[in-house]
Write a structure and sequence with these properties.
about 550 residues; eight-stranded mixed β-barrel; 23 helices; single chain
């Protein structure tokens, strides 16, 4: 659109595009005041642009389309006109409709800061708003609350009903969450089924539960997924509070996420406030886990071996390999000082692989001395169920064929077996095909022992030491041990009593038919090079020999 304006502010020339945009004929505009067509404010803006930019300039502005009424964006470029004598001779204007360009830029900007599915702010915009809320909270001496919300069972919903249904649920939930908060608060979607709700201007922590309860209720209210069907979900929410739990957006978000995981672990469909002590424990866990990984790379770990004996025969029937950390500064660290900190991580798998390899190597070294002893190795549930466990075990066994596979026994906690009975049973069968034996460790502590026991093809049960320790004084513990022994016999399984603290503990065990045991009453765990001499001098105590004569 082109226009030329004389010094008096009247149109000297306009082209057809210009006249058409303003809904007028070209001839009717020539000689008429510009202000009558575009308004006095636009004329002032043009004059100011020319003055500020030495006679030329450009700007963008919004104008209603006189024909359609739709708001349009125009880019106006103006230049001062001068006569031959140098005097002001009006100005020239070139106008371009940039509505599509502006709206495209707005759309790109919107998508950069909003979730495309729900229209909620995304992580980037949420972090910016959280930063602003923190500044405002400092100024007003108020609290900022970060609520990290994760739906319970959303993956099952997607797998069962499909992603389109899942998307519909997320859209409806987003709307519900917005209804639970004030207009000054923010509901954002981080992705998947994770949302964050920012609450500002909170005076006291006592105000927090009411809002979070509304969020939980919104998530737990049935959501329609078709005309005739509804689905009910729940949510776990973690809460961090500024400045109590941090004063940086990333810190507050991380702490709320950690609290949400605690809500999940506590049973779901609830909220959990961030715990500074828990955070300290988490940091400690990560630090120790990293140190364990470094120590493993430096060869700082060793295996000790605790003998297992047959009390009725008076023979040593095997040993259990027990890991120790020979720390260069802190000395010998027992498993309780590092294993809980790596449980469920890749470091636990690395440790388990090292233990297996080292135990097999030690079996070969003993075999060279003429000592052939079965060795039991403890494996964590995470390691056992990790992809490729059976294949890795097969490679270890087949590498040097001078160690009988049946001399290797893998011990797994009973609670691990109960996590996924079918998967664990399959892994045991795969390993048994290699000749490797399996034992259920800490037997009697699981909540489903009798229900699932027959489905697990483990050859040995190890009665937990908490039951064995008091059998001399507690008839109930002795009854439990008697029941486990009878159960093992009925299924044709071997049974081993752990935690035999004195030789006297062996007498009632023999009386109820439990012949194998290990514990401090027999021997403490010892270095590998001390075991051959101990085995050579071991003799069964006379009280066991007498008890064995009367045992069933």
């Amino acid at each position: 659109m082109l226009a030329a304006v004389d010094p008096e502010g009247r149109y000297r020339y306009v082209n057809n595009n210009y006249a058409h945009f303003h809904g007028k004929a070209t001839e009717s505009l020539i000689g008429s005041p510009v202000a009558d067509t575009v308004g006095a404010d636009t004329v002032r803006q043009i004059r100011q642009t020319l003055l500020k930019n030495e006679g030329r300039g450009a700007y963008r502005s919004r104008h209603p389309d006189p024909v359609s009424g739709i708001e349009r964006w125009l880019e106006t470029s103006v230049q001062q006109a001068r006569g031959r004598d140098g005097r002001d001779d009006g100005y020239y204007a070139i106008l371009r409709d940039v509505t599509d360009e502006v709206r495209s830029a707005e759309q790109v900007n919107y998508l950069a800061y909003h979730d495309s599915l729900t229209g909620l702010p995304n992580r980037a915009l949420m972090i910016d708003r959280l930063r602003q809320a923190i500044i405002r909270g400092e100024r007003e001496d108020s609290l900022v609350v970060v609520c990290y919300l994760d739906l319970d069972g959303f993956k099952f919903l997607n797998d069962t009903w499909g992603h389109s249904t899942g998307d519909s649920v997320l859209i409806q939930l987003a709307a519900r969450l917005q209804e639970c908060v004030r207009g000054t608060d923010t509901v954002a979607r981080l992705g998947g089924d994770e949302f964050v709700v920012l609450l500002g201007g909170i005076d006291k922590r006592e105000e927090i539960p009411a809002t979070i309860t509304r969020l939980l209720k919104a998530a737990g209210t049935p959501i329609p997924i078709s005309d005739a069907r509804e689905i009910t979900l729940s949510a776990s929410i973690g809460v961090s509070v500024c400045p109590l739990d941090g004063e940086e957006p990333d810190v507050l978000l991380r702490n709320a996420d950690q609290a949400m995981l605690m809500a999940k672990q506590s049973g779901r469909n609830r909220y959990s406030l961030f715990d500074t002590e828990l955070d300290h424990r988490t940091r400690t866990r990560h630090q120790i886990s990293a140190n364990v990984e470094k120590g493993l790379g430096k060869g700082e770990f060793v295996l000790f071996y605790q003998p297992r004996v047959d009390m009725s025969q008076g023979t040593v029937v095997g040993v259990e390999a027990l890991i120790r950390w020979a720390h260069p500064e802190e000395g010998l660290i027992l498993p309780v000082g590092f294993l809980p900190y790596v449980e469920g991580s890749d470091v636990a798998i690395q440790l388990g692989q090292w233990v297996l390899a080292e135990a097999l190597s030690q079996m070969r070294r003993w075999a060279a001395l003429g000592l052939h002893l079965p060795v039991s190795v403890n494996i964590s549930g995470h390691h056992l169920q990790a992809p490729g466990f059976s294949a890795h075990l097969s490679r270890l066994i087949e590498a040097p064929p001078d160690v009988p596979p049946e001399h290797l026994e893998i011990e797994i906690p009973e609670t691990t077996a109960m996590d996924d009975v079918e998967k664990v049973a399959r892994i045991i069968r795969e390993s048994a095909a290699l000749g490797v034996g399996f034992a259920l460790d800490d037997f009697g502590t699981g909540h489903s022992s009798l229900t699932y026991f027959r489905r697990l093809p483990a050859q040995t049960l190890k009665i937990d030491k908490s039951f064995v320790r008091d059998i001399l004084d507690d008839p109930e513990d002795l009854a439990i041990v008697r029941g486990v022994v009878a159960l093992a016999r009925s299924f044709g399984r071997e049974v081993v009593a752990e935690g035999l603290e004195t030789l006297e503990h062996g007498v009632p065990l023999l009386a109820i038919g439990c012949q194998r045991a290990q514990g401090y009453g027999i021997a403490h765990p010892m270095p590998a090079d001390a075991l051959p001499a101990w085995v050579a001098q071991w003799q069964s105590p006379s009280l066991w020999q007498e008890a064995a004569l009367g045992s069933p």
